[in-house]
Automatic annotation (TrEMBL):
<protein>
    <recommendedName>
        <fullName>DNA repair protein RecN</fullName>
    </recommendedName>
</protein>
<feature type="coiled-coil region">
    <location>
        <begin position="148"/>
        <end position="229"/>
    </location>
</feature>
<dbReference type="Pfam" id="PF02463">
    <property type="entry name" value="SMC_N"/>
</dbReference>
<dbReference type="InterPro" id="IPR027417">
    <property type="entry name" value="P-loop_NTPase"/>
</dbReference>
<keyword id="KW-0175">Coiled coil</keyword>
<feature type="coiled-coil region">
    <location>
        <begin position="328"/>
        <end position="362"/>
    </location>
</feature>
<keyword id="KW-0227">DNA damage</keyword>
<keyword id="KW-0234">DNA repair</keyword>
<dbReference type="InterPro" id="IPR004604">
    <property type="entry name" value="DNA_recomb/repair_RecN"/>
</dbReference>
<dbReference type="InterPro" id="IPR003395">
    <property type="entry name" value="RecF/RecN/SMC_N"/>
</dbReference>
<keyword id="KW-0067">ATP-binding</keyword>
<keyword id="KW-0547">Nucleotide-binding</keyword>
<comment type="similarity">
    <text>Belongs to the RecN family.</text>
</comment>
<comment type="function">
    <text>May be involved in recombinational repair of damaged DNA.</text>
</comment>
<feature type="domain" description="RecF/RecN/SMC N-terminal">
    <location>
        <begin position="2"/>
        <end position="508"/>
    </location>
</feature>
Length: 550
């Protein structure tokens, strides 16, 4: 419930702080006194958008703070989901800075306006005159049926499956679109893939082929140089191997004369072994080198194939060609298997559709079952509000498509007078009739929705006398299970409040400002008497006011 509301520098308000209690509270005041300003301030702290026009003094910030007792309303999961500190006494604060920027806080933690609005929706139901038109909206009417049918669990299941269905349907559409586009490119991609597969690409092949090509192209030069090298190493007169052998022999006799000579001998022997090995390898290479025009042509052809592929695919490496080959393979494979994928996805869509249909059926059955009950309640309550001939025609019919709240079309028609044709509420009901119908529906909903606070803004507009007295009684009854506020001009309604507050204006040196105060019993009598008979209080008006408060 709303325990305290503090407003600073908002519209005509300089600084107001007021505490509230549970039960039924009425708020009265002359037209233009600022009752709507008070409601506007509350709406701001519940998440309504704001701008600089909200500031009374544009050089100072506006601060609106509302304190709620939420201990009985199982809101802890909401706080955990939004990573907020939970407190049984929760404080919502809104600040509008002179720069025009707005900040929102829940228990001193900064939050987005969406989070504040979502929390506000669970704390207060503000019913303004404008919102009476919600009554003519099919979504609101369906909400009433769902509340009476206790459809919350069914709606949750339906919403979850509907979201899955929409996701799967989008994926199916993408596959079908892909198939339509891919068919056009499939043949060309297959041709490109075959070219790359025929090339038998592997890492490093280009370097190997280019090396082999250079060797095959220069066989004569290689053979000539190998022969010359072999000659230098193995010539009988001047060959390096023979000369090193002589050098080794010459130093062999010196090894006994010291470590230095032994070390030098070992090094000569090592060079001789390495040189002899080189000579043997040169001889083997000579034997292995021979002209091979056919192999040269094959290698040249493979290299040319690689160069052509690189040019076609705008790259200069075999690595890139391998990547392109894999991508093409995926595209070709995707097209080749698209039929099976579409079939599989269609089966998934069909399965989910059956689940959505099952939830929608439960929702629809629940709605149909409570229609007689709702009709009976509406007619009984409206009869006590001076609409004894009012009747409703409520039907739930199957829709052709899934909606956010089920698969039903709702017919919600109204007739105010006996023998009159049924018509849509917005077309056949007057403003006063809409107000009475809305109050009746709100009172019914209050039995099914665990909402801490309900605030009515002049819902009694267009009614008077005994009807207004009955409307006050209905709000008084509602306050047995929730906190109820009513901003009213009617003394019959105002008198039903357990508490009564008055909104009034004062003019000072710095301008006009709005204030609010809780009335004592004597002040309530005087206020009600003025509402009944005007400023010039008569004894009969005072007596009537006392009677209303008894």
């Amino acid at each position: 419930m709303l325990a305290n509301l503090s407003i600073q520098n908002y519209a005509l308000i300089d600084d107001v702080s007021v505490s509230f209690s549970n039960g039924f509270t009425t708020i009265t005041g002359e037209t233009g006194a600022g009752k709507s300003i008070l409601l506007g301030g509350l709406s701001m702290v519940l998440g309504k958008r704001a701008d600089l026009s909200s500031l009374k003094n544009t050089a100072q910030k506006c601060v609106i703070e509302a304190e709620f007792d939420v201990s009985k309303y199982q809101l802890r999961p909401f706080f955990e989901e939004n990573e907020l500190d939970y407190e049984d006494t929760t404080i919502l604060r809104r600040e509008i800075l002179p720069s025009g920027k707005s900040r929102a806080f829940v228990n001193d933690s900064p939050v987005t306006l969406d989070v504040m609005r979502a929390l506000g929706d669970q704390l207060v139901d503000v019913h303004s005159q404008h919102q009476t038109m919600q009554l003519t909206d099919n979504d609101f009417q369906m909400k009433v049926l769902d509340a009476l049918a206790d459809n919350s669990e069914n709606l949750t299941g339906y919403t979850e499956e509907l979201e899955k269905l929409r996701t799967a349907s989008k994926e199916l559409q993408k596959l079908e679109d892909f198939q339509a586009d891919a068919d056009k490119e499939h043949d060309y991609n297959s041709f490109l893939l075959k070219e790359l597969e025929d090339a038998k690409l592997k890492e490093g092949m280009q370097e190997e082929l280019e090396e082999e090509y250079e060797q095959l192209s220069n066989v004569e030069q290689i053979m000539e140089q190998l022969s010359a090298g072999h000659q230098l190493l193995n010539d009988e007169q001047l060959g390096i191997v023979g000369r090193l052998t002589d050098l080794k022999r010459a130093f062999q006799g010196l090894t006994d004369f010291g470590a230095d000579y032994k070390s030098l001998y070992d090094r000569i022997q090592s060079v001789l072994i390495e040189t002899d090995d080189i000579a043997s390898e040169l001889e083997q290479m000579q034997e292995g080198v021979e002209a091979d025009p056919e192999r040269l042509e094959v290698v040249n052809g493979k290299l040319q194939q690689l160069y052509d592929l690189q040019k076609k695919h705008h790259t200069d490496s075999v690595t890139d060609l391998i990547v392109i080959r894999e991508e093409l393979a995926q595209k070709v494979d995707a097209v080749a298997n698209i039929e099976s994928k579409i079939k599989e996805k269609q089966q998934e869509v069909d399965t989910i559709t059956k689940k959505v249909e099952a939830w929608a059926k439960k929702i629809s059955e629940g709605r149909k079952a409570v229609i007689p009950k709702l009709n009976k309640r509406l007619q009984a309550n409206l009869s006590s509000l001076g609409m004894s001939a009012a009747t409703f025609k409520i039907e739930v019919n199957p829709s052709k498509s899934f909606k956010t709240n089920g698969k039903d079309d709702l017919v919600f028609l109204f007739s105010a007078n006996k023998g009159s044709n049924y018509g849509e509420l917005k077309k056949v009901a007057s403003g006063g009739e809409l107000s009475r119908i809305m109050l009746t529906i709100k009172s019914i909903l209050a039995e099914y929705e665990n909402l801490p606070t309900m605030m009515f803004d002049e819902i009694d507009t267009g009614v008077s006398g005994e009807i207004s007295n009955r409307m006050g009684e209905i709000m008084q009854q509602m306050s047995g299970t929730m906190q109820v506020f009513s901003i009213t001009h009617l003394p019959q309604v105002a008198s039903k409040g357990k508490y009564q507050f008055k909104v009034y204006k004062e003019e000072g040196a710095e301008g006009t400002s709005t204030h609010i105060k809780q009335l004592t019993m004597d002040e309530r009598i005087r206020e009600l008497a003025e509402m009944l008979g005007g400023k010039s209080l008569s004894e009969s008006a005072l007596a009537h006011a006392r009677e209303l408060l008894q």
